[in-house]
Specification:
76% of the residues lie in helices and 0% in strands. The protein is mainly α. The chain is elongated.
């Protein structure tokens, strides 16, 4: 995955609309499905928990299918990019101990994966206005740069490949 420039205002506007739409569809869909099921299959006594659960589950599946279908729509570009970026960063986080150890040994792919992680994390923190995370990221990023210089590695977040993380 390559890091891309994202318009923060556009991203925040689109993510808010997507979240509101998902919530609205979940509420309307689950209530409608549950009410239809309760109407056709009424229970003499007790709760209708199982019909409500079926309504929520069916609507959640519909929402997931719709999100996957429209993920490539131009309106969803920023939202899908951030979604994919978070998944890529989570893959790096899961291998962070091994990546740090490999970087200490001077392995260039580990340095590039860590550079991608810090740049991607900085981008997410900026998009989410998370100033607290930015300070910690800057400290770790400067340490990574010093370690890379000591091992003669030139850092480039664009050189990152997902195979770097999978190979550890």
């Amino acid at each position: 995955m390559q890091l891309l420039d994202v318009d923060k205002v556009r991203y925040r506007s689109h993510i808010k609309r997507v979240i509101v739409m998902v919530i609205a569809v979940l509420m309307a869909g689950s209530l409608t499905i549950a009410q239809v099921l309760i109407t056709f299959f009424p229970a003499a006594q007790g709760t209708h928990f199982h019909w409500n659960l079926i309504g929520v589950t069916a609507t959640a599946i519909v929402v997931l299918v719709l999100l996957r279908k429209y993920k490539t729509h131009p309106y969803m570009f920023e939202v899908a990019y951030v979604w994919d970026l978070k998944q890529a960063l989570n893959q790096v986080i899961r291998k962070m101990t091994k990546l740090n150890a490999a970087a200490q040994q001077g392995r260039e792919p580990a340095f590039q994966a860590l550079k991608f992680f810090y740049e991607g994390s900085r981008q997410l923190a900026n998009l989410d206005d998370n100033a607290i995370a930015l300070e910690e990221l800057e400290i770790k990023h400067h340490q990574l740069q010093r370690d890379a210089e000591a091992h003669g590695v030139i850092l480039d977040a664009g050189a990152y490949k997902e195979s770097y993380v999978r190979s550890l």
